[in-house]
Amino acid sequence: MSTIRQNGSLYTTIENRIATVEFGHPASNSFVTELLDRLTKELEKLSNDTTVSLIVLKSEGDKAFCAGASFDELMEVTNLDQGQQFFSGFANVINAMRTCKKLIVGRVQGKAVGGGVGLIAACDYAFATENAAIKLSELTIGIGPFVIAPALERKIGKSGLAELSLAATDWKNAFWGKEKGLYARVFSTSKEMNIEINIFTEKLASYNPEALEEMKRVLWEGTEHWNTLLKERAIISGKLVLSDFTRKALSKYRK
């Protein structure tokens, strides 16, 4: 299945019990609200698909993995309801990844910013190339990575979250991500990464589906309150995006 290009694209293929979900957008694989909604629904659907044992999440192309939420949409937010809805997009996807019965393996070929880093953190296992640097730049425009913070803290700890989010103009390289636990493995090239992903997922897909589902449940123990937590975080961000500081910061981009 696919979406039209102005709203990004989403394709799913299923082969040998492995569902590969590929998202894309001309603006560095960023997410408009509609694409986030479609990804949420697709993960919910695959969660109950008995022909699928695990999911590979990837983005199109060989450059950026994900530039986060659409900046164009962010600049159109004018009231609290719009703000909450905007930031709920990634909240819904992260919760869908969390509650999905299938393990999710991330394939990260390039840079990730903001919500894109949150997507990686919500994967159960992530492969990356040396080009997969990450950055959380939200504080520079007066908001913060509040919605994705729980997913990041779960993977890299509170100290890692602080190091990444407070140095809001700095890129952290892929090896920093591996050291902190965001990435399981880092490769020199996408070709090498693809070979290892295929080997890893084929093995995983051959295991008992019931055991994989139980393992998924164990990995996410203690996050049952996230449905409420991430909604609350979306409200915080929705309020901040209306602040004078953020409106002024965004106006510079409009110019």
Roughly what percent helix?
40-55%
Mean pLDDT value: 95
CATH level 1 name: Alpha Beta
Oligomer: single chain
CATH architecture descriptor name: Alpha-Beta Complex
Q: What portion of the residues fall into strands of 2 or more residues?
A: 5-15%
Q: Gap between N and C termini, in Å?
A: 37 Å
- Spatial strand order of the main sheet: 1-2-3-4-6-8
Order of SSEs, N→C?
A: EEHEHHEEHEEHHEHHHH
Tell me the domain tally.
1
What's the overall geometry?
A: globular
Radius of gyration: 17 Å
Number of strands: 8
| Alpha-beta classification | alpha/beta
Total number of helices: 10
Low-pLDDT runs of 5+ residues are none
Task: Please identify which CATH superfamily we are dealing with.
Answer: 2-enoyl-CoA Hydratase, Chain A, domain 1
What attributes does this structure have?
255 residues, two-stranded parallel ribbon, 49% helix, 15% strand
Short description:
The chain is an alpha/beta fold. It has helices at 33-47, 71-74, 80-99, 115-122, 149-166, 174-180, 190-205, 209-219, 226-240, 244-254, and strands at 9-15, 18-24, 54-59, 103-108, 112-113, 125-129, 134-135, 185-187. Strands 1-2-3-4-6-8 form a six-stranded mixed beta sheet, with helices on both faces.
Write the layout of secondary structure elements.
Layout: E1 9-15, E2 18-24, H1 33-47, E3 54-59, H2 71-74, H3 80-99, E4 103-108, E5 112-113, H4 115-122, E6 125-129, E7 134-135, H5 149-166, H6 174-180, E8 185-187, H7 190-205, H8 209-219, H9 226-240, H10 244-254
Parallel strand pairs: 2-3, 3-4, 4-6, 5-7, 6-8
Antiparallel strand pairs: 1-2
Helix pairs in contact: 1-3, 3-4, 3-9, 4-5
